[in-house]
Amino acid sequence: MCAKEKYLRLGELLIKEGIITQAQLEKAINVQRQDGGRLGEILVKMGILREEQAVAILGKQLNIPYFNLGTELKPAPDQNLEQLVPKDFALRYTVLPLSRTLRSLTVAMADPLDLILIDNLRKLTACEINPVIATRSDILKAIENFYGKSKMFEEAVEASYVNVPVVAAGEEAEGDQELSLDKLIARAEEAPVVKLVDLIIRQAIDERASDIHIEPFKERISLRYRIDGKLYEIPPPARQLHLPIISRIKILSKLDIAEKRLPQDGAFLVRLEDRPIDLRVSTIPTIYGEKVVLRILDRSSVVLDLDRLGFEAKQLEHIRRVINMPYGLVLLTGPTGSGKTTTLYAVLSEIKSPTKNIITVEDPVEYKLDSVNQVQVKPEIGLTFANALRSFLRQDPDIMLVGETRDLETAEICIRAALTGHLVLSTLHTNDAPSAVSRLIDIGIAPYMVAPSLLMVVAQRLLRKLCPDCKEAYEPTPELTGGIAIKADLIYRPKGCAKCGQLGYRGRTCISEVMVINEALRELVSQGVSFQKIRDAAKESGMVTLYESGLKKVEDGITSLEEALSITIGAD
Q1: DSSP label at 541?
Q2: What is d(CA 312, CA 246) in angstroms, rounded to the nearest whole number?
Q3: d(CA 183, CA 185)
Q4: Highest mean pLDDT: which of 28-32, 56-60, 388-392?
C-alpha cells in the first residue's frame, strides 16, 4: 500500500509540473500493474518522460539533490576518491564518489533508495553517505571520465605501438603468406589483442555508434565509428596489429581466419551490463589486406513505437488508417540506412495481435519480434525472397512483410498477394514516394496491376537531432538562411557539450513524405503517367514533401537548417 501511494504521489507531482497528463499517468499505472516496475522507469520506456526529467522529479519528491553530467557530476580532485570507491564497485552498482568532508562522503546514485547499497558504501569507505541523484547514463559516463576508460583505450592503442616487429613497406604481403595459421590464432588470442578488440567494441557502444570500420592502408590502420549517420576518426592501433585484430574478430564471429581472398559475413553476441547486443561482421579483401565492418544492433536502444519515430501527427493518422486495412500493398522507400526496417518493425509491433498470422522474410533478420514468424533468406540453398513468398501463401497469412522488393518475381508475388486479401509490407530503393510507382513499372509490373493493389508509399530519411543541452538559438535572417523562408522567429544550430561529445547533435529522427493512394492518384497510376504528374497530384492531395518535412523539424527546433538541407537538398 505504501509503495502504491508513493507512485501515485510521484504521478501527481508530474501532473502538477505539467510534464504528463492524467491519461498518460493512468496508461503507465496500468502497465505497472501488469508488468511491475517503477513508475518513473515505465514512463521513460513509454517515451512520455525523458530519463533526466524522471530522475529530477524523483529527486524533488525525495528531497534529494539532482546532479547532471554537464555541471555538478564531477568528483573533487586530490581526495583519492578513486581509491576510496574502486572502479569495479562504481560500475557494478552505478555510483560515483563526488567529494569527502571529514567522515561524510557525497555519492551520486541512480537509486538513492537502495539502503543495502548505502550500507555497503558506508562499510567500504568508513564514511557516512550523503546521496545525490543522477541518471544512470550520466553516472556511467562520469565514471568513464573519472576512472579513465577513454584514457585506458588510448593507453591500449599506444601500447600496440610498443615491442611490435617493424615491417618495411612492401614486405607485409610476403610476411602474411608465411605466417602460420597456428601462430595467427595464438597472436589473436594474446591478452593485449583481446583487450584491444574488447575496448574498441565497448567504446563504440558507449559512443552510440552504429558501425565500426577497421580499414588497412599501406602504412597505417584507419579506425572509424559511425555515430548518428556520420563517420568519425578514432586513434588507431599499430599497423602490425591489423592481422591479429581481424583474426580475433573472425574467431568471435566463427569465420574462416585462413580465407583472406573472399568476402565473408558472420555475427556474434556480446553482453554489456546484462544487455544483449548483436554484432554483424562483414569482411572484404582490399589491396592492403582485409577491411572489416561491424554493425552494432543494440535491441534495447531501438524504438519500435510509431509515435516516437518522428512522423508528424497528420502523417501518423494516414499511416495508422492504412496499416489497419485488411489487404493491399504498403511500400517504404529511401536509401540504405534511412530507417525503413525500423519503421516496418514499428508498424508490425502496432498491428500484431493473436487474431493475425504475420510472416516476414528478411535479409538479414535484424530484430526478433514476439508473435511474428520471421524467416531469414538463404540464397545459397535456394531460399530466396520469391521462393519464401510462394511458401508463405500456403501458410494462411494475414500480413506479410518482405524485407526488400528487388526483382520482378518478388514484386509480382507481392502484388498478387495484395490483390488476393493479404496486407503486404515491403521496401524499395527510391528517392521519394512518387518514384516508387515508376520503379514498380520499370521492374515490369503493369500499371493496371499497380493501381488497385498499392495503398500507400512512405519515403523517409534520417537526420541528426540537435543536442537539447547545448543547442544555440539565432534569428533566421535571409542572409543566414540563404533566402529560405522560415516561419519560426528563432531557429537553432549546434554548439557542442560533454553530453553530446562536443558534436552538437545527439540521436536521430525521421523526416518523411506519406503518399496515400486516393482515387485520383489511382486513376493516374493506371494510365501510366509520368512521375512528375503523380508527384504534382500527390502534393495537391496534401502530401508533405521531404523538403517541407525537414524545414518543419528546423522550425520546431529539432534540427539545424544545415542538417535538414544536407539530407533534403535534392528531394523536393
Answers
A1: T
A2: 44
A3: 5
A4: 388-392
